[in-house]
Predict the 3D structure of the following.
Amino acid sequence: MSASTLPPFDPADPLGIDDLLSDEDKAVRDTVRQWAADRVLPHIAEWYEAGELPGIQDLARELGSIGALGMSLTGYGCAGASAVQYGLACLELEAADSGIRSLVSVQGSLAMYAIWKFGSEEQKQQWLPRMAAGEVIGCFGLTEPDHGSDPANMRTFAKRDGSDWILNGRKMWITNGSVAGVAVVWARTDDGVRGFVVPTDAPGFSAPEIKHKWSLRASVTSELVLDDVRLPADAVLPEVKGLRGPLSCLSHARYGIVWGAMGAARASFESALGYAKTREQFGKAIGGFQLTQGKLADMAVELHKGVLLAHHLGRRLDAGKLRPEQVSFGKLNNVREAIEICRTSRTILGANGISLEYPVMRHATNLESVLTYEGTVEMHQLVLGKALTGLDAFR
Ligand SMILES: Cc1cc2nc3c(=O)[nH]c(=O)nc-3n(C[C@H](O)[C@H](O)[C@H](O)COP(=O)(O)OP(=O)(O)OC[C@H]3O[C@@H](n4cnc5c(N)ncnc54)[C@H](O)[C@@H]3O)c2cc1C
């Protein structure tokens, strides 16, 4: 094997992972990358600093028009893309900002997925086409002020009143809450945990926005307040009872995060690599120092290992073989490594690393949320620990 006959080394794809992609996969990736470059990157620092996502309804419609909402679902106006293609889209969106990827994940993998998987045909017809088009934004209310990692003890309760349901309770940290037209809300009933499709104009429903966040600032995060919200009998998701419902939605969304986190890592790494080649100290580019090269090499190894892992899990999902423990494996590794890549990139940029002129600190602070939501690091360690030992250490 002579080096001259080999394909050239590509710093953007050192392992040649692109070889795993079909032309259709690449087209999906390029479309989403271009959209993010045009619509998000020119504004994101400003939005982040202001702590808002202006024009979110327009952004949602545009994301709908490129097929990014409920992307891997079939029918009802959804794109029916493969799991790998959905993952590639998540990576490209999160390379722009985790807030944009969160908008898409919550819409497609949590709110739409819950209705698509567990809803009645009427619920699907009523909501999914408009959600796929981005005309209606959805949110997913599981977490409560006093119940995060342990949702089994949630307090939100739905009681029967004739054939109607009356919902009371509070949900906390709900992405898209204040801009949603529909909320999928999980509540206890006399018959176990059930999911409810709640139009957000229902009397008694409100969704005040949570301000003063230092992470995911370009994302809407809200409290959901349910004060005697009366819903008709057919508001309940008929096809699931118990925590299996929300947990299977979370597994679907976590899969997207396995890819997405590597987008934030890629953007930070690229920023650090570019800087290292041009910034000079002690008479030469800092990328020429061995200590900097050590950081760059280690980051490249973890970045591309993470992308490879995401591909592997995507292929298993497409083959119908992906287990929840394997999703935990991917989320645990990739988010943890992504945040390390951001922190190391920050050191290479020196003081400039703390500036919003560069994306690195924004990605690092975003990933603090990503590390916590959809199951904290510790929860995924416990999932894997249980799978490895057969011993439950959750309580
Ligand atoms: C920006 C953002 C957006 C979010 N969006 C949504 C959303 O759209 N919908 C939604 O329902 N939720 C959402 N969440 C909530 C998120 O899912 C929860 O924050 C998460 O599940 C953790 O719950 P908690 O914050 O209450 O932490 P806690 O559960 O109180 O955990 C605190 C700490 O204790 C640790 N811990 C808990 N139990 C154990 C144990 N048995 N062993 C060891 N350690 C343990 C945890 O790992 C963590 O480190 C969002 C959160 C954020 C920050």
The longest strand covers residues 164-175. The beta strands are 138-141, 157-161, 164-175, 182-189, 192-199, 205-206, 221-231, 280-281, 284-285. The mean pLDDT is 97.
